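Ticket #4471: structure export looks truncated?
Reporter: QA, pipeline team
Priority: medium

Steps to reproduce: submit the single chain below to the structure queue and open the exported record.
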Amino acid sequence: MTEFKVGDEVYYSPQVFGKFGSYAQYHVADAAIVAFKPINLSHIEAACFPLAGGTAWDCLVTRGNLQVGETVLIHAGAGGVGSIAVQLAKAMGAYVITTCSSKNRDFVRELGADRAIDYKNEDYVKVVLQETDGLGVDLVLDAIGGETIQNSLEIIRPFGRLVSIVDIATPQSLIKAWGKNLTIHFVLAPQYRAKLDALTKLIDRTQLRPAIDSILPWDRVVQAHQRLERGGTRGKIVLEFTS
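Actual output as written to the record:
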């Protein structure tokens, strides 16, 4: 039995490694991962949230344990996950530092970032240490990969946390994490309704809003993926299916 009925407007993220995919007009899903769509969002806007928003929730809340008054560094704050994570961290009462390109500085500030670091022209390690009087941040969210984890260990205060949503392509030294008693989480966000319901409450209170880079028709899916692979997107790319 389920509380959903025909005609209900819902949103959810399909199973990431499911065998059926989700680029379709119709989709079958387990009711346990489905939630009622926020009433103040269109379907296009709502499509931005389940995967990216659910990932941000798991990183900051479930695994990162971000607390009111703490300081968090969010790498790639203008991206799909980052743009929601910045808003979520601010709604949770944290001081938010994020990295982005110079063209996205105003954008991430509008999302709630207290300090935007131009990663191309500024050394985020030096900036973070200056911003925190040498103490470092309580939590880092890594959405970039590469040497980001190793470099970020320098700016996390003792007993702090690091959460990453990307794998490590090459071996990195984590000895600094051991010396500081840091906790490191690698997150592949599971799908479940409770976090979508929590996000919906924040959306209803206008503490979270969608960030849409572009909307493309479904038959331009190749171009959408090419755009993602080039990087530099601002928020999410949405595929629209029409009749």
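Status: closed, not a bug. The export was complete when the record was re-opened. Leaving a note from the reviewer for reference: Residues 67 and 225 are 35 Å apart (CA to CA).
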